[in-house]
From TrEMBL:
Cellular localisation: Cytoplasm
Primary enzyme class: transferase
SUPFAM superfamilies: Acyl-CoA N-acyltransferases (Nat)
Keyword Iron appears in the UniProt entry: no
Span of domain N-end rule aminoacyl transferase C-terminal: 109-235
Keyword annotations of the record: Acyltransferase, Cytoplasm, Transferase
Name of the gene this protein is made from: bpt
Subcellular location, principal: cytoplasm
Protein name as it appears in the record: Aspartate/glutamate leucyltransferase
Annotated N-end aminoacyl transferase N-terminal domain residues: 19-89
Catalytic activity: N-terminal L-glutamyl-[protein] + L-leucyl-tRNA(Leu) = N-terminal L-leucyl-L-glutamyl-[protein] + tRNA(Leu) + H(+); N-terminal L-aspartyl-[protein] + L-leucyl-tRNA(Leu) = N-terminal L-leucyl-L-aspartyl-[protein] + tRNA(Leu) + H(+)
C-alpha cells in the first residue's frame, strides 16, 4: 500500500465476509477494509482515496468481490472539467440557489430532510428507518475531515429553505463526495447534479485537484449519471486513466 504516512508499520487490510450487494441484490459482495482500529486512519485516508477506496462512517473500504469488478472508482480532474449543455442548464436553472459550507455537525433540519429523502428514494430498502444515531454513524463518523455543503433557497432574512446537503470529505488535494440528500419535492431542479457542480466549483476555488465520486457501475440506473461529468478518470486497480 506504499509508505506515504511516515510510521513504522504498514496499515493492515481485512476482507469482510460475504454480504448482499447494495447494487445488484442477486449478487454476493465482499469488501477490502482498512483496519478501522488503526489511529493513523485519518492520515492514510487521502492516499486510500487514490487507491480506489471510499469512506462510510469510520469504515474505509473498496469492493473486492469474487468474479465481479463492476464497481469502478471514479474521480473528476477539476482543472480539465467543462460542464456540458445539460449541466449548464442545471446551473442556470439554480443560479439563485445559495451555497454554504459548514462543519459536519447534524442539525434537526438536516436530519428531517435526510429522513424525507430516504422515505422517498429508498423506501423499504433498510435505510428508511435511519434516525439521528444512524445519520451520525453513516455520514459523519469519528475521525473524518468532513463538511456539509448546504444548498438553500434565497432569502433576504437569514438562511432560506434547505434544499440539499452534500456530505463532503476534504483532503489537501481533493474533495470526496460521500453522500447527497435533497428535498424530493424539488427533484426537477436536478439537485444531485447541482451538488456535484458546486463541489467542483469549491474544489477549483481552493485549488484541489480532484473530486472523487465513489463508484461507477456501467449500466446501473442509479450510478450511470456519473459518466456525464467529463472528463472522468477511472481506477483500474493500479492506475487512473480517462474513462472512454
Amino acid at each position: 500500500m506504499g509508505t506515504e504516512p511516515q510510521d513504522s508499520d504498514d496499515l493492515r487490510l481485512f476482507h469482510t465476509g460475504e454480504h448482499a450487494c447494495g447494487y445488484w441484490p442477486e449478487r454476493a459482495a465482499r469488501d477490502l477494509v482498512l483496519d478501522p482500529r488503526d489511529p493513523r486512519l485519518r492520515h492514510w485516508y487521502p492516499h486510500a482515496l487514490s487507491w480506489g477506496f471510499r469512506r462510510s462512517g469510520d469504515i474505509v473500504y473498496r469492493p473486492h468481490c469474487a468474479g465481479c469488478r463492476a464497481c469502478v472508482a471514479v474521480r473528476i480532474p477539476v482543472d480539465r472539467f467543462v460542464p456540458d449543455r445539460s449541466q449548464r442548464r442545471c446551473l442556470a436553472r439554480n443560479a439563485n440557489v445559495e451555497m454554504r459550507v459548514l462543519p459536519a455537525h447534524r442539525t434537526a433540519e438536516q436530519l428531517a430532510l435526510y429522513r424525507r429523502y430516504l422515505a422517498s428514494r429508498h423506501a423499504g430498502g433498510g435505510m428508511d428507518g435511519h434516525g439521528a444515531s444512524e445519520f451520525d454513524q453513516f455520514l459523519i463518523g469519528s475521525w473524518s475531515e468532513g463538511r456539509f455543503l448546504e444548498l438553500r433557497e434565497p432569502s433576504p432574512q437569514g438562511p432560506g429553505k434547505l434544499l440539499a446537503v452534500a456530505v463532503t470529505d476534504c483532503t489537501e488535494a481533493s474533495l470526496s463526495a460521500v453522500y447527497t440528500f435533497y428535498d424530493p419535492d424539488h427533484a426537477a431542479r436536478g439537485l444531485g447534479t447541482l451538488a456535484i457542480l458546486r463541489q467542483i466549483e469549491w474544489a477549483r476555488r481552493e485549488r484541489r485537484r480532484y473530486v472523487y465520486l465513489g463508484y461507477w457501475i456501467e449500466g446501473h440506473p442509479k450510478m450511470d449519471y456519473k459518466r456525464r461529468f467529463r472528463p472522468l478518470e477511472a481506477f483500474d486497480g493500479r492506475q487512473w486513466h480517462d474513462l472512454p
